[in-house]
Amino acid sequence: MNDDTTLVDNCFQILKKGIITGMFAPGEKLRVQSLSATFDIGPTPIREALSRLSTTGLVEIKSNRGFYVKTISESEILDIYETFKDIELLAIEKALLKGDSNWEANILAKLHKLSSIEKDYDESKLDDLIKANFDFHYSIIEGCLSPCLLNLRQSVYQLFDRYCYLSLLHIDDLSTLNSKEHRQMADAALARDKEKLFKLTTSHLQKSLKAVLKALQVAGFSHG
Prior knowledge:
The chain is built from 9 helices and 3 strands; from the N terminus they run αβααββαααααα. The chain is mainly α.
């Protein structure tokens, strides 16, 4: 990998994180020269990174107007949610069939990490919470042993994750985090109880969806 490619990759990750975390607001114009000055990176890798981001659904290119952070719409959120749920349940089904003792041990390890953060949560731990939550859910579906399915899940997850992160920034009280529900999901996975885990996962995702829609409406992000 040459230096130019590495620089573009770094720009891609920096800008993607900025969009997902809300540093750049939905609909905001991403000015190449301004970003170049902010991050002390030449305009060419910035432009290439923005072009790559346009293929992920995070950035849109408007003819003769440049790059913009893709706006948020309720219909898009619902579509992403349904797609993600379908992929998640398929991955879970395969994982329950293929998961081994290492898979089980990893689920318990990730659950312990997540539970410890949930127990003593405060705003300074938001990034840690998000990572631990991702790692726990991923530990369950990772057992599907399908790189193709996991990559597909990740591409949709980053779209849903963007909305979840933005919603968390506008929720005053995160004390409703449900550690008990995560424990139930882990227990169902270890017991290979597909029906119960499907039900728990669907309920868990539905709660996330409701929180996203409510928070984005309050914040004025949703555009119908």
